[in-house]
Amino acid sequence: MDNEISKLISRFLDLTDEECMAFNECIPIKPFAKGTVLLREGQISKESYFVIEGCVRKYYIIEGEERTTEFYIEDESVASLQSYMNKTPATHYFECVEDSRLAVLSYEKEQELFKRVPKYETLCRMSMENDFGAQQEALARFITSNPEERYKNLLKTRPELIQRIPQYHLASYLGIKPESLSRIRKRLFNK
Questions:
Q1: Which residues pair with 47 in a beta bridge?
Q2: DSSP 8-state class, residue 11
Q3: Element housing 62 (H / E)
Q4: What is the pLDDT of residues 7-55, one digit of tens each?
Q5: For residue 151, with 0-12 CB atoms within 10 Å meaning exposed, 13-18 middle and 19 or more buried, which class applies?
Q6: What does DSSP assign to residue 79?
């Protein structure tokens, strides 16, 4: 079990040598440069990703303005599920915010893995349920809080993003303009 992807999966599942080989054959790890767009609005998503190193941003373009809705960092899955599963055009973009190393899984290889390693399908289902619950909580928290509360929550729950992500992307993620984020940071710093 010398491949990085099988070591990663074995953190969640006990794997036989044959199962390790299946993962190693089906899920390559690829480097992507900062600024690489993995998926564009209108494209049909043919791949899902798992962040080994780096950061991927999900955003929409609304009235010519980018609106960031998520950041994916190490040990997080990146997928446009509606597009990927239903073969429909994506409504958003995925872009590497940093140089990144991503495990890349095509729909066809995922189906092959489900056959070769049936317990992988259970892991995927559990992971999706966990991610869905977290997304529900994040959306509710966003809707019910003001920008300063959102920033404080970001500091508490995802402090690593503050140092890694440009301020204009963070502002977009918080639903405010960069100038407003600067005022919030200054106000909190002076308290």
A1: 106
A2: T
A3: strand 56-62
A4: 888 888 888 899 989 999 999 999 999 999 999 999 999 999 999 999 9
A5: buried
A6: -
Question: Which one-letter amino acid corresponds to residue 49?
Answer: Y
pTM of the model: 0.90
Report the run of H or E that residue 5 belongs to, with start and end.
Answer: helix 4-9
Residue 126 φ/ψ, nearest 5 degrees:
-65, -40
Instruction: Give CATH superfamily name and number for 4-133.
Output: Jelly Rolls (2.60.120.10)
Cβ atoms of 153 and 141 closer than 8 Å:
yes
AA identity, residue 163: Q
Nearest to 49 by CA among 59, 58, 41: 58
The whole-angstrom distance between residue 40's C-alpha and the CA centroid of its chain comes to 15
Domain ranges of the chain: 4-133, 145-191
